[in-house]
Amino acid sequence: MGVNLKKIIESGWTNFRRNSYLSFAATGIMALALILFLGLLSLQFLTSQVVSSLQEKIDISAYFKTDATEEQMLKIKSDLSVLPEVVNVIYTSRDQALSDFKARHIEDDLIQESLEQLDSNPLAASLNIKTRDSSQYASIAQFLENNSLRSVIDKINFYENKGVIERVENISGGIKGWGLVITLVLAFIAILVTFNTVRLTIFNQKQEIEIMRLVGASNWHIRGPYLAEGGLYGLFASVIALSIFYPSVYFVSDKITAFAPTVNIFGYFLVGVPQVVLMVTALGVLLGVASSYIAIRKHLKI
User: Fold this and answer.
1) What are the C-alpha distances in Å from 83 to residues 76, 79, 135?
2) What is the sign, positive or negative, of the torsion defined by CA atoms of 24, 30, 36, 42?
3) What is d(CA 15, CA 222) in angstroms, rounded to the nearest whole number?
4) Distance CA 23, CA 223 (A)
5) Measured CA distances, 10 to 14, 99, 133, 232, 253 (Å)
6) pTM, full prediction
7) Same domain, yes or no: 177 and 289
8) Which domain holds residue 144?
9) If DSSP codes are grouped into helix, strand and coil, which group holds residue 283?
């Protein structure tokens, strides 16, 4: 069995070399489809990390009108503190807000001079609320909207932050959707090119196939080389795809980390090298063998 398999693979390799131009085209298109597939995996990882990072940073801040009394503001703080989903509520008075603002811009002389010229404190008092889970912020926003003292609240900034997350999710969803469509189209083209390459090989070897039939070769011996040929397309395509993908990820990883410090895409794919290599190779070989099998079923009647 081992000798037979070796001969079949050698015959498949011979077919691969004979159709050099078509083999190159089939392998190249299949490699492109696999690269796009890896790109989709990268995008999925990046999206989940960016959204997770945004969700960790998101909070709710309720800014009060200037005529709100401290008693009213502390009453709302007290109401929020007893909610089971709330972890922490920080009250910042107008004076404290101004002091914090000055401290943050202590080296900016223009801002310091502008503040000195103002007759009154332009900053509002606020409550900053943290919940146990980011999904609970919507209920907190609703609680503030329905609070009996809602009239003293000027603005709730949750809706602005929520919009950022929704935009990121919508953009990434659109990219992933189109990426999947393009990947499927390329996979179909790769199957079509491989199918036609194997079909051409079968037509060119009709005489050899007839001789093999006459000498009593088994169906496996006749069909095997074409399946091996398709598998080789997928194998080489996966090698090309991985050889392009990992250096590309390494190159862009630092740039992505500079934009999103919590995201290390190269480290993520480096840890999963065995799984990624196995998955991409298996997918490529499966794609090639499936294409060859379809061509054999249609054009090799034995």
Assistant:
1) 11, 7, 15
2) negative
3) 13
4) 18
5) 6, 79, 59, 11, 40
6) 0.67
7) yes
8) 58-160
9) helix
